[in-house]
Amino acid sequence: MTTQEKISADFDPNSIGQKIANIYGLPFDTKSAQIVIVPVPWEVTVSYNAGTADGPLAIFNASFQVDLFDPDVSDAWKVGIAMQEADSQLHSLNATLRPLAEEYIARLEEGFSASDDPSMAKLLAEINAGCEKMNEIVHARCEAVLAEGKIAAVLGGDHSTPLGLIRALGRHHSDFGILHFDAHADLRDAYEGFTYSHASIMFNVLKEKAVSRLVQVGIRDYCEQEAQLIACSKGRVKAFYDRDIQARIFEGQSWQQICADVIQQLPQKVYVSFDIDGLDPKLCPNTGTPVPGGLGFEQALYLVKAVVASGRNIIAFDLNEVAPGADDEWDANVGARLLYRLVNLAAKSNGRN
Known about the structure:
353 residues, 8 strands, Arginase, Chain A, alpha/beta, 11 helices, 8-stranded parallel β-sheet
């Protein structure tokens, strides 16, 4: 069935979400949907708390409790949203490589290094090769979505997961910017030796020629080397640090004014990369590396809405680092609602709603 046929079928958006359906209980599959979510259950290189590999499934399960009415987007559910099944090879690779990475990191913390320990060097090479394989799988899946003229979204997993999508976008768009929500700058060069570390995603993204601008919001945990990279980027990277945002608010500026400054830095085409720890940690207490401070839920979405209102196009996006807690579903509930709003706003920015 086409998207329109699915919409015309007997579906009540006010009814309970049926778990026999796709994400959010919607009547779409990946063929009829206009926005396709690519889940990437991956956390091989996480350097603190694990759990993000369980994020995609947890968000999928929590999605059935999300009300489909969105005051910002008329008949939002009709755009057609569906989530792919996770790639079985990714599950297997993650399960194999994560214990190896834990062993490698533990030995690093004990003062050993891959440069003088052949066994560590072997571990590192295997992990880096596996991470490259993950990038290839994500790239292939996202390229297939983009080739059909649809909007692709990556749902991680740790924040290393969207590189394949961003690489694929470079084949379809010659110039786009990244709007990056995060507590961390993620500009480390091969953090801990991992070429595709979750802490290196934006360092790797900057290697893509199509990415003309990286605009970071909410950054509050970063090293001197990252600060220098930003300062020496000749404007290609612009960071709106959390401490500076809060200082401006304390001194009487409005969030609307700050958002206008953020948007001014962005080109016409925008990719949104959203690490959940960019939010206040009370909204994501189980994420891998929570940091005090951060944005409120509606505060972050106000900025995305302002991007759409400016006439810019959100060409794709990702949501990462949602880790379900052992005792409750709070993180997944927040993640499911954030994902739905991002989908709706991306659709609206492209006239698909």
